[in-house]
Amino acid sequence: MSEIVFEGVSHDFGAERVVDDVSLVLAERRIGIVGANGSGKSTLARMINGLVSPAAGRVLVDGLDVSRRAREVRRRVGFVFTNADNQIVMPTVREDVAFTLRRHKLEKADAAARVDATLERLGLTDLADRPAHRLSGGQKQLLALASVLVAEPGILVADEPTTLLDARNARLIARHFASLDQQLVVVSHQLELLEDFDRVIVMEHGRIVADDVPSIALDAYRVLIA
Ligand SMILES: Nc1ncnc2c1ncn2[C@@H]1O[C@H](COP(=O)(O)OP(=O)(O)OP(=O)(O)O)[C@@H](O)[C@H]1O
Q1: What pLDDT is stored for residue 171 in this prediction?
Q2: N or C: which end of the chain has fewer CB within 10 A?
Q3: Residues with CB under 6 A from ligand 1
Q4: What CATH number did the domain enclosing 196 receive?
Q5: What ipTM did this prediction achieve?
């Protein structure tokens, strides 16, 4: 399992302290992050692959300082955004998944086999030649996930991956998460998605206010927002 370490991490946007002196060691397989709107969850998640650099402190992924070794870290950390439209770049489903591997120096046949296996795994094989922009919201989320997973990152960070989905597609994504070998860090407002995770972190005003197994941390969060 990978290890993600936050050492006294703070971040400001303008005059607002968005992440406030967070220290964490994340070594569990599936970790959820919850908190009210604007509590700093996305900012914290984005620090794991260097999309945001902390103003103070350090973030380490498997011992690599994310701010200094961003390129190596990004090979280990796949990031799935809330809105899959921001992530889909190629005309068809298959091309979009294949695009991720363009710099992986794989033989053409090996790359194609990996793309096919990933499409199969996420139930996208029948949609492989469809225009990506015409997929449903749920199918787009699955495609965004496929395009990240095809690179076989050791860590998957997903920022509200089910927010735009109906209950059925949200369950589909939850099932895929349950079957992944990767270490998973998921920011979500859908608490049921995190119920069988190993650990849940609750944020408020940029600080960690609860950090426990889901049954305890989610209850603490429910009390907080009641
Ligand atoms: N790029 C940015 N520039 C300026 N302010 C930002 C930026 N990104 C986030 N913020 C601000 O930082 C604060 C924390 O935002 P963040 O997205 O981390 O919260 P969040 O907990 O993920 O919220 P939500 O649940 O609404 O997605 C918010 O007040 C937000 O407006």
Answers
A1: 85
A2: C
A3: 13, 16, 18, 35, 37-43
A4: 3.40.50.300
A5: 0.96
